[in-house]
Amino acid sequence: MLSNETISLIHLNMVQGVGLKTVQILRDVFGSAERALQATSDELSQIDRLTPAMRDLLRRKPVQYPIERELELIEEYGCQVLTLYDTAYPALLKEIDTPPIVIYIRGELTSADSLSLALVGSRDAKDYGRKASYRLSYQLAQRGLTIVSGLARGIDT
């Protein structure tokens, strides 16, 4: 079962325009993502490190589909969810400039997974691109590489 903090980080991660920097500011100010999602307009307006546009975005929290649907998908696909703040989050992934706030894992994450690859392409992928990325990722997985996906639409294996 996911903690309230993990669910809150998933929710913030779903808000288009909210990234790592904003999440870090919110956690610094409010102590947790859960508390940040409960912040009033007045509380958000007092955060100097947020632009007016970001404050407005956080008030509205627009997402493409409800958080409940995301949680259903996580369960349906049997995903494990790790946030940047979890101890099991991959150490090498934490070292990149802007690591993902949330990662979804199907299967088991082991130390052997340190050699991994993500293919990223168009959200509006054509048939050729989908087939080529599938073949390439399949062949690499057969040779022992861990294939990483952000579960985005299009080519994101």
Secondary structure elements and their pairing?
Layout: H1 4-14, H2 20-30, H3 33-37, H4 41-45, H5 52-60, H6 67-76, E1 80-83, H7 91-94, E2 102-105, E3 116-118, H8 127-142, E4 146-148
Parallel strand pairs: 3-4
Antiparallel strand pairs: 1-2
Mean pLDDT: 87
Figure out the total of helices.
8
Count of folded domains: 2
Structural class: mainly alpha
| Order of strands, widest sheet | 1-2
Secondary structure: number of strands: 4
Give unreliable regions as ranges: none
Radius of gyration: 17 Å
Gross geometry: globular
The major beta sheet can be summarized as: 2 strands, antiparallel
- Terminal-residue CA separation: 26 Å
Strand content: 5-15%
What features would you describe in this structure?
The protein is mainly α. The protein folds into two domains: 4-105, no CATH class; 111-148, no CATH class. It has helices at residues 4-14, 20-30, 33-37, 41-45, 52-60, 67-76, 91-94, 127-142; strands spanning 80-83, 102-105, 116-118, 146-148. The strands form two sheets. The protein has a two-stranded antiparallel ribbon with strand order 1-2. It has a two-stranded parallel ribbon with strand order 3-4. The model has no long low-confidence stretch (mean pLDDT 87).
